[in-house]
């Protein structure tokens, strides 16, 4: 069996692992694949260093953790629609949104979130590979929902456990009611049909806290695409959500990944929140992401809930 180097991301973190020495041939070893799968289940995030930087390697690594899933939004750019299902492209382009934080303009910035919140079915995990690394910014950060829940105040943990949160694909920042930095300013919305066309689209419902089969409770909520609470879209609902989020952000102990050549990162989307810190609009930046099937079975469409209540 291939010998891999496995270490903690940081000594002070309760999640995450770093892996070195993984090769394409090592991925053929059933024991290696099994160990990597269990490592992700245990640690939530794995940073792979020194990997072969090809799409084929990214897909083969992704398939260790489950089958690939096509992104549910058809308009999202694909790396190769015919031969690489599930590989999407995140890149700076003429339609990129621009935000300003502390007076600094940024592109490809995203707030804390989990992927596919706008869908009734989530995804288990994703793998990122940086194709063009920005010199100024461009970090990706991760925060463990288990750690967040454990370090929140008992009162806010209890409050979060009662929340069923609504999300849809209206991802415009000027529609986001909480979870943005205080020093945030929108310069230009992203030119995407994932936003304005979905302002009144039906919402998915997801719990703010859920329990893993292994018994840990996970804080799993964000302001990105949030439309309120199930049955309540009032200002008071957003005040409740903002109060819980502020406590979660206070408790959060994130890991910020500085991209280097040879890196790939996989994270458990059912457990871990992530954010993109943005980069200089004048610099090229491109990331390829694979989407891996798997769900926790707790999401549903809001309309389905309403229909079941009238039967």
TrEMBL record:
Keywords: Dioxygenase, Iron, Metal-binding, Oxidoreductase. The keyword Oxidoreductase applies. Residues 15-291 form the TauD/TfdA-like domain. Gene3D superfamilies: Clavaminate synthase-like. Belongs to the TfdA dioxygenase family. One of its GO terms (biological process) is sulfur compound metabolic process. Signal peptide: none annotated. One of its GO terms (molecular function) is metal ion binding. Pfam families: TauD. One of its GO terms (cellular component) is cytoplasm. The keyword Transcription does not apply. The lineage of its organism: Bacteria, Pseudomonadati, Pseudomonadota, Alphaproteobacteria, Sphingomonadales. PANTHER family: ALPHA-KETOGLUTARATE-DEPENDENT SULFONATE DIOXYGENASE (PTHR30468:SF1). It comes from the Bacteria. This is TauD/TfdA-like domain-containing protein.
């Amino acid at each position: 069996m291939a010998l891999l180097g496995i270490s903690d991301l940081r000594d002070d973190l309760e999640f995450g692992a770093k892996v070195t020495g993984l090769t394409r041939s090592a991925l053929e070893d059933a024991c290696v694949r099994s160990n990597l799968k269990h490592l992700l289940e245990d640690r939530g995030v794995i940073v792979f260093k020194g990997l072969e930087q090809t799409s084929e390697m990214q897909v083969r690594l992704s398939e260790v953790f489950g089958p690939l899933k096509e992104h549910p939004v058809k308009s999202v750019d694909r790396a190769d629609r015919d031969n690489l299902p599930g590989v999407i492209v995140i890149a700076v382009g003429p339609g990129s949104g621009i935000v300003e934080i502390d007076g600094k303009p940024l592109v490809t910035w995203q707030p804390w979130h989990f992927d596919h919140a706008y869908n009734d079915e989530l995804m288990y995990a994703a793998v990122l590979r940086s194709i063009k690394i920005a010199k100024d910014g461009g970090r990706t950060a991760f925060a463990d929902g288990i750690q967040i829940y454990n370090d929140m105040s008992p009162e806010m943990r209890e409050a979060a456990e009662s929340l069923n949160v609504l999300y849809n694909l209206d991802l415009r920042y000027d529609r986001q009611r909480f979870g943005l930095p205080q020093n945030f300013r929108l310069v230009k919305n992203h030119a995407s049909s994932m936003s304005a066309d979905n302002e009144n689209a039906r919402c998915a419902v997801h719990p703010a806290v859920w329990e893993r089969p292994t018994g840990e409770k996970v804080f799993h909520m964000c302001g990105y695409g949030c439309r309120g609470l199930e049955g309540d879209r009032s200002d008071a609902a957003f005040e409740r959500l903002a109060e819980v989020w502020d406590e979660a952000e206070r408790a959060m102990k994130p890991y910020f990944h500085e991209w280097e050549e040879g890196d790939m990162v996989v994270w458990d989307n059912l457990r871990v929140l992530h954010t993109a810190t943005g980069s200089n609009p004048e610099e090229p930046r491109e990331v390829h992401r694979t989407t891996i099937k798997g769900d926790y079975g707790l999401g549903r469409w809001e309309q389905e809930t309403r229909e079941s209540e009238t039967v």
